[in-house]
Amino acid sequence: MREHGGNLDVAQQRFGGAAEDWIDLSTGINRVPYPFVDVEPRQWNALPSRSDIESLHHAARRVYRTDAPIVAMGGAQTAIQLLPHLVPRGRARILAPTYNEYAGLLSAAGWDVAEVSDLGALAGGDLAVVVNPNNPDGRHHDPHELLALLPRVGRLVVDESFADAVPGVSLAPEAGRPGLLILRSFGKFYGLAGLRLGFAVGSEPDIAALAAMAGPWPVSGAAIAIGRRALLDHDWASATIARLADDCGRLDTAARSQGWTLLGGTPLFRLFDTGDALAAQEKLARAQIWSRVFQQNPGWLRLGLPGSEAEWSRLSAALSV
């Protein structure tokens, strides 16, 4: 298992407490989730119908502003797992540093993998991967810059797992072009990661291949019902985008009081140079607030945004010690 946030079991082993005692800021998951939705009994006790799945696809297309083929999956991670098998093995080029599953999965599947530091170096790859906005530093690229890569790579995969709060960066409206594949996460922005829902949007051949690999029931009936309701709730999404923008400023101010430097981020997480991330993580962990550190960058600490005022107060108190 590669290093990821959300590893509260590690926090508990080291610092004690039950899972419910902790504020988990080690992920980019919205801690003010979409309100609970009642699910009809049939969504639990019957297999999802084709019309149910298509209604979810329709909702996703509206939100992502696309008419391209789309397939729902058990989180964006499922699409990432299938990616090495979408096309014949060759040269994979990944814009890094970024989400570590891409390099690991492609290498294990026999791809020739190289991590590069600028967009131009992706040229010549049979498979080129860009996470936009990027995890963990939040850098993002203009959609036109990414489209300019299409003639220079075999397949361009753009992971937009953190794009819901910054919809202007999305290439989903351009999906359907040959060689372009967009991955979207549902659980992060809507705060329902346990639902395991995500989407792949792209050309007809790519989406058909992913759908075949995912099988006849790629998502649950409950995920369909809740996901459809949430995706079509534009008022909630607009209010959430505004709240997250305000909360980013609040977290950045708190970090500056510690002498930390903001390196980047998205409206769902911030990345700071703390000088000594392990010491900063331990300081927060003693107040049962979990954060993300990076072995290759000992100064980097990534923090998600607290949700309730009680969580903000606990973070403030932990930082003031």
Question: What this model shows, in words?
Answer:
It is a single chain. The strands form 3 sheets. Strands 2-8-7-6-5-3-4 form a 7-stranded mixed sheet. Helix 5 links the parallel strand 3 and strand 4 (about 110-115). It has 2 domains: about 10-35 and about 235-320, Aspartate Aminotransferase, domain 1; about 40-230, Type I PLP-dependent aspartate aminotransferase-like (Major domain) (Aspartate Aminotransferase, domain 2, 3-Layer(aba) Sandwich). With about 325 residues, it is α/β, with parallel strands linked by helices. It contains 12 helices and 13 strands. Helix content is about 35%, strand content about 20%. Helix 3 (about 50-65) packs parallel to helix 9 (about 220-230).
